[in-house]
Amino acid sequence: xxxxxxxxxxxxxxxxxxxxxxxxxxxxxxxxxxxxxxxxxxxxxxxxxxxxxxxxxxxxxxxxxxxxxxxxxxxxxxxxxxxxxxxxxxxxxxxxxxxxxxxxxxxxxxxxxxxxxxxxxxxxxxxxxxxxxxxxxxxxxxxxxxxxxxxxxxxxxxxxxxxxxxxxxx
Length: 170
What we know:
The protein is an alpha+beta fold. The protein has a single domain, classed as Pnp Oxidase, Chain A, CATH 2.30.110.10. The protein is 19% helix and 41% strand. Strands 1, 2, 3, 4, 5, 6, 7, 8, 9, 10, 11 and 12 form a 12-stranded antiparallel β-sheet that branches.
């Protein structure tokens, strides 16, 4: 997981003149509080797949869960590269984020228990998970948990001033 702040730069080509880069700590606040993310994966035949899901920011990574037979899980077995996006559906207000990285399965049960607590703290008791056998369990089903540490992220400030900030890790 990234342990240091990223290199942050404004892209003047897509920003209002004089706009400043949005600090990474503001981006982290958005990642930590956003309720919904859109995940983009690639099918084995190279077609894209996008679907909404909840995610939790913890220890420098976004975490999401998926059933092992769901489309995104099958895609990740062939290609673990993903993009997660969040923000608002308004063009002139808000701050959108795009996080690019590699989805890595989390199986350590202590870490999964901490993530299960984080899920329930963020989303409420409907999202209560038990942990066993390296998975989240909810009712009769189980889910694999993945972590995506940002490799590159983009922040889009909307409204005056408009801005595009790039965050590069590593």
